């Protein structure tokens, strides 16, 4: 396990612990604590997977023979049957990402529908009919928060790596209004899936390398590029540019200037460890006709590929469309040590940095709550009010309440005094409920002092009683507040109750 994977796992434990601690504080501190609880919970929700295999992500413009390439990589007739829906229809028809994974635990192919955001299995053992309805736009599939996950017995395929194929996107189709919504879902699914299943991209093209500005693939590649550039640009993520089919293969072995195409249309390639491969899926149904190599072939082969020369490429294509060579290339990439570092930088590091920040803010919040001294803060507020000359004594609020009741007698002393004391506190404590509960405590203490034996203020005329209490309250309430005399009473029960 890499250092970063361990860091992710440790941080997850720490985040859970600090959430628990923050949740245990009295509600009084609620607002502040809740904000940090929410932030830490978001971190946990977005935690990247550690210890997953490396996934190959096949993206590309539409009809660049991605599915054909995927099927050739896995070379399994049962799988071909599942995808046979594709052969009747030449329109843009893949609705959702499709993950095909060699698996030791299954004896026959198992097709699942899996939620992208939660990674939960929605249903499994889908029939071919059910698969079609979820996978194929022409069959009424509506792209949503799910992908198709096909498990294939490991011993029935030469492919060792899990591969995800994405819906093809028409060049320039973003400009069409009716395509915008569906492309946004394609893109959201693509980004979320890349995050859930760390790996590298294979970008497929049928004729010429071209990614129009603003195309989801351009956005993805630029984003990948930026993250890599801003972190450690010695560790580049691999990128396989796969030129697929007759036209591309013959052009790139022939007269097309690949480097020029890449520079013009695919500027972000520079941020990656880019390899070009030529493959011809369904090689025997659509054979390639080679012409004499042009002046550019040698240069791109030397700079941007692992091929020796044009002759090697031609032999590989004639043999099996270059598929077994490609399978080997993908495996070699996954076995290299630099890819794990690049994936860590891309997927783990940003999360680690963000979560470390959230965690330390949450810890700070805990210690603020634990060391919070309300009495000191209130004292400071009183001092400030006196300096600003806005301080109002208890008597001020008493006079107001007396004026309000006019000639009447006070019929409920507790309510009457609690209102006055609350209003007085409100100058320094900006929490109505807290003011009322402290007022409640102080009223009970005043009654204790004035009428300890509960004799009901014997011998006092009802009309004089408020003034007698006032004389006592004037000193008592303000002193109790400054000394924090109420704290002991309040803290024995949950605050605010
Ligand atoms: N592999 C291949 N297929 C071809 C060729 N010419 C026509 N086709 C047909 O085009 C289809 C290939 O399309 P797919 O492999 O599904 O292409 P894709 O990139 O997966 O398409 P979307 O996912 O819909 O964007 C196959 O059904 C073939 O019958 C060719 O030269 N090579
Ligand atoms: Mg496809």
Short précis:
The protein contains 20 helices and nine strands. Helix content is 54%, strand content 11%.
Structure description:
The chain contains 20 helices and nine strands. The protein is α/β, with parallel strands linked by helices. It folds into two domains: 55-335, Rossmann fold (3-Layer(aba) Sandwich), CATH 3.40.50; 392-489. A nine-stranded mixed sheet has the order 4-3-5-2-6-1-7-8-9. Helix 8 (216-230) links the parallel strand 7 and strand 8 (238-244). Helix 1 (3-23) packs parallel to helix 14 (337-371) and helix 16 (394-405) packs across helix 17 (413-426). It is elongated and about 120 Å long. Mean pLDDT is 85; it is low at 491-497. Bound molecules: guanosine-5'-triphosphate and magnesium ion. Guanosine-5'-triphosphate binds at residues 62-68, 86-87, 92-94, 167-168, 245-246, 281-282, 286.
What are the defining features of this structure?
497 residues, alpha/beta, Rossmann fold, 9-stranded mixed β-sheet, disordered C terminus, binds magnesium ion
């Amino acid at each position: 396990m890499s250092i970063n994977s361990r860091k992710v796992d440790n941080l997850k434990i720490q985040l859970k612990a600090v959430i628990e601690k923050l949740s245990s504080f009295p509600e009084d501190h609620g607002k502040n604590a809740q904000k940090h609880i929410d932030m830490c919970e978001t971190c946990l929700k977005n935690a990247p997977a550690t210890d997953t295999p490396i996934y190959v992500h096949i993206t590309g413009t539409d009809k660049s023979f991605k599915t054909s390439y995927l099927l050739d990589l896995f070379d399994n007739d049962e799988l071909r049957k599942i995808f046979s829906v594709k052969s009747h229809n030449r329109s843009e028809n893949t609705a959702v990402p499709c993950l095909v994974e060699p698996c030791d635990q299954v004896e026959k192919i198992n097709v699942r529908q899996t939620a992208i955001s939660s990674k939960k299995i929605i249903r499994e053992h889908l029939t071919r009919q059910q698969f079609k309805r979820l996978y194929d736009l022409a069959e009424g599939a509506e792209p949503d928060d799910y992908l198709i996950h096909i498990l294939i017995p490991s011993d029935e395929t030469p492919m060792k790596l899990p591969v995800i194929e994405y819906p093809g996107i028409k060049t320039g189709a973003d400009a069409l209004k009716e395509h915008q919504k569906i492309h946004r879902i394609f893109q959201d699914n693509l980004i979320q899936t890349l995050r859930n299943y760390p790996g590298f991209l294979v970008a497929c093209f049928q004729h010429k390398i071209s990614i129009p500005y603003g195309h989801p693939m351009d956005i993805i590649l630029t984003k990948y590029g930026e993250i890599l550039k801003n972190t450690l640009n010695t560790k580049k993520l691999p990128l396989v540019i796969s030129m697929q089919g007759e036209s591309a293969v013959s052009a790139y072995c022939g007269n097309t200037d690949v480097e020029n195409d890449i520079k013009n249309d695919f500027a972000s390639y520079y941020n990656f460890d880019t390899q070009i491969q030529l493959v011809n899926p369904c090689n025997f149904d659509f054979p390639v006709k080679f012409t004499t190599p042009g002046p550019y072939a040698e240069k791109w082969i030397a700079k941007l590929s692992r091929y020796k020369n044009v002759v090697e490429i031609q032999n590989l294509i004639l043999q099996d469309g270059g598929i077994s060579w490609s399978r080997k290339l993908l495996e070699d990439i996954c076995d290299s040590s630099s890819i794990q570092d690049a994936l860590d930088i891309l997927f783990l590091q940003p999360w680690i940095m963000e979560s470390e920040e959230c965690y330390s803010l949450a810890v700070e919040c805990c210690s603020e709550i634990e060391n919070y001294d309300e009495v000191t803060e209130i004292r400071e507020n009183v001092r400030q009010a006196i300096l600003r000359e806005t301080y109002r004594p208890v008597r001020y609020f008493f006079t107001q309440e007396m004026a309000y009741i006019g000639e009447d007698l006070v019929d409920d002393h507790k309510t009457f005094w609690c209102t006055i004391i609350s209003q007085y506190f409100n100058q320094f404590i900006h929490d109505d409920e807290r003011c009322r509960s402290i007022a409640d405590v102080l009223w009970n203490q005043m009654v204790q002092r004035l009428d300890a034996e509960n004799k009901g203020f014997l011998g006092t005329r009802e009309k004089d009683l408020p003034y007698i209490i006032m004389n006592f309250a004037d000193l008592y309430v303000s002193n109790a507040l400054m000394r924090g005399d109420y704290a002991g009473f309040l803290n024995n029960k949950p605050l605010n109750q």
